[in-house]
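Subgroup meeting minutes
Present: P.N., E.W., G.H.
Scribe: E.W.

1. P.N. recapped why we're keeping a running log of single-chain structure predictions: easier to compare across weeks, and new members can see raw inputs and outputs side by side.
2. G.H. added today's entry (168 aa).
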Amino acid sequence: MINQKELDLLLEIHKLLNKYGEETFNNLVKNLKDEFFVSSIDILAKSASNIKTPTKKTKARIDYNKYLSNVLSELEKNDIEKFKLLNEFVKELDSKNCFSTLKEFSIYLNETGVYHKKIQTWAHGKFILISYFSTQKIFEIKRTINRINKPQHREDRSLDAWSNIILK
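Output recorded in log:
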């Protein structure tokens, strides 16, 4: 009587026979009768189990805050007025008064031509913008910051806003 394991093995052999053909199967039967071939298969199987699969390296994250502090410290040494202006602007960016969302910040950088890709983090965007500003003249920086900080018309769909509209 045949047990379940033997039946499973026979079914797998049948599938492989259909896949590779009868000629390949007959050649394999002849090779399995050769002792040298069988011993070399054992050696290959042992060496294959010892081979380590290469591990996938994870991308190291860039610490943009560190680079930003380096840019600001260089400005502090070289141009104290520009440093004060940009340091205040960084605080504005941190409080998200200028841009409420990362997408809005990224769109601004794209539209102004400062950066042509989508930014992934706030720190990345701050580093790019401050690096760009560090090469500009002070009056250009002030003009740009004033334009950014200018209150923009935003739709307020809160209940209070609707009640003010209705009651007017």
